Amino acid sequence: xxxxxxxxxxxxxxxxxxxxxxxxxxxxxxxxxxxxxxxxxxxxxxxxxxxxxxxxxxxxxxxxxxxxxxxxxxxxxxxxxxxxxxx
Length: 87
Known about the structure:
By secondary structure, this protein is mainly β. The protein is about 0% helix and about 45% strand.
């Protein structure tokens, strides 16, 4: 018997449509200190959203952004620099 009032761990999970694949480790460079940024996130169901967060690393034109949001299974996502600005 299933209790319909209990949600599953994956309820509400959405893909981040503007996320990029993880670059090769040899291409990744850590920032000397975490940087405060604003990221534009394109959620699969909710559309575009601007989120204040932080960035930890970069690789070419990609930035590793912390995304502590229950809609994402991942806590760090690589975004193109066009979708990330300093705060």
